[in-house]
Amino acid sequence: MLTLVTNWPVIYQKGNPLPYFKAILQLNANKTYVQVQDDDSIIFVTKRDNYDEFHKYVEDNYDVSFNEQMGSGYIFRSNKKVVVISSEIYWKYYVIWIISIKES
Question: Which domains does the chain have, with CATH numbers?
């Protein structure tokens, strides 16, 4: 119980942790990224040092190419749109990716 109380801010750093737990439990050697069920945003989770396949997914799914990295954000571009994925460390072992799309 003491562990739960002392780690409460970490557990709830992204709000309700259940969608994130569900996504994290699906990660394995064959599935290196999983979409988090969220009605308001496009959110994915990966293991901390294993996101190359996720970046490839973004390029293929949104028909964009990697352009540059700015801090924790990765910018992908095409003639028609800009896709920015921002990253946030989650529980030290995982990364939460939030995708933003802007049509040109």
Answer: 2-103 (3.30.310)
The pair of structure tokens assigned to 12 is 């709830």
Return the DSSP state at 79. S
Residue 39 has a pLDDT of 75
Residues 21-59 pLDDT 10s: 999 999 999 999 999 987 788 999 999 999 999 999 999
In order of 4, 5, 22, 38, 52, the CA distances from 25 in angstroms are: 20, 23, 5, 16, 19
Which single residue is written with the structure tokens 């190419």?
A: 65
- The pTM (predicted TM-score) of the whole model is 0.85
**Cα separation, 82 vs 68, whole angstroms:** 11
